[in-house]
Each structure stands twice: as C-alpha cells, then as structure tokens.
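Action item from last meeting closed. Structure (385 res):
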C-alpha cells in the first residue's frame, strides 16, 4: 500500500471539490487521489479524471454512465454510477480520508458508509450534521473516526482549539458576512431578485450555499453543525456579523481569553488544513495585509428580518428529527427560489411552516431521518404548487 494519503472527493465537480483538487495537485508527494465523484456534470468529471488520474470515478446520473465509461476506457480508470456506488467506493482500502463535498441531504448516506469503514472524514457537507448530528457523531466515536471540519468557521474554531483540547470551551462566536442583503429591511427584501441573491460579497460558492448565505440559513445550519462538531450546548453558540470575512470565528475559554483565526477568505486553506492536520503545508495563497483592512467591524445579526437563524436555534433545541425537517424544507425552498417559483422571503416562510407542521421524532434512528426528510419534502412541494 502507498505511504501517501489516499483521498476520495465526493462532489469533485463542485465549488469545494474543484478547489480540493487544486490543493491535492499542489502536494503530489503527500496525496494520492483515489476517487472523484460528480452528480450530473459528466464533462467536467471526465476532464478531471484525465488530468488527475484517480483510480475510480462515480457519476451520479445513470444516463451519463456510458459516456463517462467510454471516455475513460483507455485511461484504465474504474467507472461506476448511482448512489450505491458512491457508498461503496468510499470503503476502498486505498482510501484514507473522504472529503464530503456533496451538497445537501445526498451527503448523509455516503458519509455513514465512510465512517462505518473507519475512514477519516473531511466534512464540507454541513447538511449531514444538521440532519443527523447526534447519530453521526456517535457513530464516529464508536468507530474511532475523526471528523475534520472544512467549513471556514468550523475550521477556524478547530484551529483555535489545537493545543487546547483539554480546556473546556465557554462559548464560541461564529462570524457571518451578512450576505448581500445585510442591513436590508423586510420591505426591501420583498423586492430582491435571484441575481442579487446569487452575488455573495466575499465568497464564490455553489448556488445552494450562496442562497443560504443570503437568507442567513447558512449561519443557522452552521450553528447546528458547530453544536455537533464541538459538543456544545445551544447557549454556548453565538453569531456575530463581520462583513469583511477576515476573522473566521472565535473561541472563548473559561478564563475569559478569546482566540480567533484570521486570514483572507479562501476556502483552499480550510480544505487543506482538514486534509493535512496536524501539519500546515506552505502555500502561495495571497497574504492578509492590515493596511488594506483598517477597519474590521462587528454587528449583531438581524434576527427579526432574517428568520432562518432563529428557526435553526429553535430546531436545535427541539432535537430529534426537527432539524432534518427544516433542512429538507430549505433544500426544496432554495431549489424553488433558484427556479424563480417562489420569492426570497417565501424561503423562510416555507421553512417555518414545515417546522411547525412536522412531527418531531425524538431519539431517531436512520430510518426516521429518511422518513422525516421525505415527508418534509413532500409537504414543502405541495405548498409551492
Ligand atoms: P456545489 O453545488 O458547487 O457542488 C456540489 C457537488 O455535489 C457537485 O460535485 C455536484 O455534482 C455534487 N452533487 C450534488 N447533488 C448530488 C447528488 N444528488 N448525488 C451525487 N452528487 C451530487 O456545492 P459547494 O461545493 O458549494 O458545496 C458543497 C458542500 O460544502 C455543501 O454542503 C456546502 O454547504 C459546503 N460548503 C461549501 C462552501 C463553499 O465555499 N462552496 C463553504 C463551506 C461549506 P454535479 O455538479 O456534477 O451535478
Ligand atoms: Mg461557512
């Protein structure tokens, strides 16, 4: 077996996935790319496979299987398709770390398979912990599996905790850029367009998370993600808006000391740290210059206008399958907004309605999440019609 670290990237054609390939390409003596997977983008998957020469590729879309298989025939790359294949390839003995960069609920099942197979997880797919945080973290503990965060705020917290794992956390602050509609009133939000919502001020990301950032749902999902990653109580987690996105998050310890992690916004850094921890590898990423940022500012989020944030705190306190139902409603709502079937404000309205009208199953097992997800999607779909 190779001494290099075998990596599987689930969702290599996405925003995180493509940046992860850049990171891996920079350290050929350290990483061995084993698996890459795509949902529908077969052309990019083929291009990536020819360039990066993984051992295996998976295309989610079964209609595209033949095309990918034929294109990679002479490259000696194994090609599979469908959800089951996604779950099986992460179990390969050659894979050490699985980077979960799928978007949404689709990430849950392959992550469970990867943990069960004892693989280290570099977790970008926050929805997995939102949907089933207790279940996933318990499984990871039982299997002795580490979950390293890729999300920039959680990577920041994790970086602040290195060397401090024996010290209790008093509180964490997750920073939020505030998105493109920071400071907007409810009246102003009635008028906003899809194009405006897709323009994030500081980060270039996939469409779903970009909309989640504009509605503050992303920060709500991150609050739940943080609870599970760092084993916190809801009252230990706070959100602070920091429009410059330089301070990526903060930890407050029991002596009152606070540690923050800073840098220019660039997802390649947290992706790389999740793959190289506990080491830091030298990079050529642009460096932060204080003179370009004479003012770093902080303000409270507007929870009355951006209702998704409070909704996330509410489902976190409800426990059980409540967060799973919220996540499903939000995925349906964001997809409908991206198709211009509902307005910006209707996203939070739909989410609230589904949370209030879903049965919350406490102490859920895997099948309960599947059921809660499917019921919430069905109800949300009916409300949109
Ligand atoms: P993208 O939409 O850019 O990429 C998603 C990836 O998942 C693509 O490769 C896509 O394939 C694949 N995919 C989507 N649905 C399925 C499915 N049903 N089955 C198989 N594959 C699927 O998303 P991002 O990269 O922006 O985000 C990925 C995750 O990382 C999200 O959970 C997000 O919240 C999180 N994250 C992202 C950040 C960012 O900067 N982008 C920052 C922090 C967290 P294809 O395109 O081929 O269809
Ligand atoms: Mg984030």
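Sequence:
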């Amino acid at each position: 077996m190779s001494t290099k670290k075998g990596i599987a990237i689930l969702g290599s054609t996405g925003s995180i996935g493509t940046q992860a390939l850049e990171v891996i390409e920079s350290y050929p003596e350290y990483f061995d790319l084993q698996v890459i997977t795509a949902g529908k983008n077969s052309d990019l998957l083929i291009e990536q496979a020819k360039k990066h020469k993984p051992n295996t590729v998976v295309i989610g879309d079964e209609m595209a299987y033949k095309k990918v298989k034929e294109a990679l025939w002479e490259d000696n790359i194994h090609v599979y398709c469908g959800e089951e294949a996604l779950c099986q390839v992460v179990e390969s003995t050659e894979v050490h770390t699985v980077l979960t960069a799928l978007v949404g609920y689709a990430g849950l099942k392959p992550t469970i398979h990867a943990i069960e197979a004892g693989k280290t997880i570099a977790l970008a797919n926050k929805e997995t912990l939102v949907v089933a945080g207790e279940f996933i973290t318990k499984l990871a503990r039982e299997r002795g599996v580490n979950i390293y965060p890729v999300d920039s705020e959680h990577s920041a917290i994790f970086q602040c905790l290195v060397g401090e794992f024996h010290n209790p956390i008093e509180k964490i602050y997750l920073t939020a850029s505030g998105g493109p509609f920071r400071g907007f009133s409810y009246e102003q939000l009635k008028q906003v367009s899809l194009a405006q919502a897709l323009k994030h001020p500081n980060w270039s990301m996939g469409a779903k998370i970009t909309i989640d950032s504009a509605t503050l749902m992303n920060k709500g999902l991150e609050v739940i993600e943080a609870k599970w990653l760092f084993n916190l109580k809801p009252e230990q987690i706070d959100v602070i808006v920091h429009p410059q996105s330089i301070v990526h998050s903060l930890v407050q310890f029991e002596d009152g000391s606070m540690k923050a992690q800073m840098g220019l916004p660039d997802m390649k850094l947290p992706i790389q740290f999740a793959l190289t921890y506990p080491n830091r590898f030298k990079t050529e990423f642009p460096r932060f210059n204080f003179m370009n940022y004479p003012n770093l500012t902080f303000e409270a989020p507007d929870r009355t206008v951006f209702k998704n944030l409070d909704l996330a705190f509410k489902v976190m306190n409800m426990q059980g399958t409540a967060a799973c139902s919220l996540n499903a409603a939000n995925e349906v709502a964001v997809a409908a907004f991206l198709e211009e079937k509902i307005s910006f404000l209707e996203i939070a309205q739909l989410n609230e309605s589904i949370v209030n009208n879903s049965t919350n199953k406490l102490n859920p097992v895997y099948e309960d999440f599947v059921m809660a997800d499917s019921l919430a999607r069905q109800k949300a779909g009916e409300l949109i019609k």
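Note appended to the action item: The chain has a mean pLDDT of 97.
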